[in-house]
Amino acid sequence: MNPLPFHLVTLSHSEWDVALAYAKHLGEDALPELRLDLFPEVDPEGLVDALKRRCLVTCRRVSEGGRWPDEDESGRLAQLVRALPGRPQWLDLEWDQPIPPEIQAARTHVRLLRSIHVAPGVFDLEARLRDLPSGEAFKWVGWAGHLGDNGRLRASLAWARDHNIRLSAFLMGPKGIPSRAMQAAWGGAFTYAAPDDGPPAAPGQLPLATLHAWQAAKLHSGYGLCGVIGDPVLHSRGPAFHNPRLQHALKDLIYLPLLCGDAAEAVAALDSLGILGLSITAPLKLSLPEALGLQGPLNTLWRRKMGDPWQGANTDAEAFRQSLSNQQPGPVLLLGEGGVARSSRSVLEESGRAVLQVSRRSPARVEEVAALAPVGIVQATSLGMSAEDPVPFPGLLEAAKSSARWAVEWVYKEDTAFALWAREAGLDVVGGAALFEAQAVGQSRRFIEGCGGL
Q: In 47, 168, 257, 321, which residue has its Cα 20 to 30 A from 96's Cα atom?
């Protein structure tokens, strides 16, 4: 009988030929999930035969994120049975579904994965593990309403591992990403991935290439969790920057995007998820450190092990101070009022520069900017995170244009409206990507030197 590999990759492509071509290139650590509900017009036996039996056959109801009508349960089961002559290696049957006689008869060569998708707010995994249905592997899927919900799966996953039960238990939604990535570390036997050339089949499903890059299959129970926390963070370059450095340093740490915009929710997740290191972004650079009794703004937190006090640093300030040393001295127009703006102002004043800080709540007149004659402009608002964001305070920028010689863009998206304006004005521009890398180097050093394993 064929074992279940760690990665199950849902063939979510819109065309079967594309899905088949992708499946043929999967390695031994990844098994295609053939979703019959995504290809309802194609003969199931032929689909399995095209995959040379190497697949998990699933037919998902609409109520569970699939496309098969809930009211046609007999048709759905019949579609699964039609796949059996192709002799698939694995077949997914719902947790509470009685095993049809045709499927039971095929169990000499087909293994059963029993799955359940529960409603948001339901966490009945522990009870379900006490009354397992007949099967060779089990999948429990819930929803992450809060970041800390991921931690509610850890004990059950560890119990299943200790009792040699092949279980995957994870949460859907962007806040459920830790449960998918940490499956192996927490005791899970497998996890689901999206194809690298196709869409995710469920909210929060990660591409196979991402799980490979994070070495998710190699994680063990001693691994600790680091990550970037804030909202938004799913775009962050942090995982691509930090994970290779943690791996190169042979640290038992993984770095993930942790979606959370509320300080109280973040604090609750720290111990629930076993977090040892954090990069903090908006809107938590002030509120999260303060909730932990630390003086903000900070963008970096770390601790040696669970229960140790948190240490903090502001590598944003370090990176800005470094970039400022190469710029012409003189007064500065500072745009924004959040944590990055506060850090920028502190560094500017520390260097003896006059600062005029402007925000929506604290506007300034064109005449004030002209009288200041700023040499530098620092863009520390959130404008630029979206491609359609406009230039901030265009009237004030025009008033500063004649005297300005350099500009700093904190947003590390490529070619924000402000960065384009500054270049067209002939200014020496320090881009967000350069600042990101400079501050991230300082973060990686603290994670590597300051965080241990669990």
A: 47
